[in-house]
Amino acid sequence: MAIQNIAVLGAGQMGNGITQVAAAAGYNVTMIDIQQEYVDKGLATIERSLAKLVAKERMSQEDADATLARISLSTDRADCADCDLVVEAVPEIVDLKTSIFAELDSICKPETILASNTSSISISTIADATNRPDKVIGMHFMNPVP
After folding, report:
1. Is residue 19 part of a domain?
2. What secondary structure does DSSP assign to 56-123, as a single string?
3. pLDDT in tens, the chain (146 residues)
4. How many structural domains is the chain composed of?
5. Which residue range is the domain that position 34 belongs to?
6. CATH number for the domain including 44?
């Protein structure tokens, strides 16, 4: 399965960074959080980061614009339904993560890979909340991501 569409749950420091690098790599990314103000703030952080890269001549303005064009925002986890990969980057709270993964299991296609950016919670614990433990992976990014 080729990965084309990615959802990132969480628009905070890790989530917006993961969104930025995935979009810069050419993937369509939906950044999702529980409130519109959070995704708006996450997008503003990405815009500032890309502007710095352009100013330092590490990225062209065209590439920065293309990166932003590949990012969409949402407050609805149902928007993960057509994604090939979902990366969770929410606070390190076991019950929060397991409830999100249980919900994603019912929303997403059977072949969707569900990834957690956790740094301390067992992936097996998270995977046990789903009916697809073979499709649940750890994908920990170092901070800051971009």
Report:
1. yes
2. TTSS-HHHHHHHHHTEEEES-GGGGTT-SEEEE---S-HHHHHHHHHHHHHHS-TT-EEEE--SSS-H
3. 799 999 999 999 999 999 999 999 999 999 999 999 999 999 999 999 999 999 999 999 999 999 999 999 999 999 999 999 999 999 999 999 999 999 999 999 999 999 999 999 999 999 999 999 999 999 999 988 98
4. 1
5. 5-138
6. 3.40.50.720
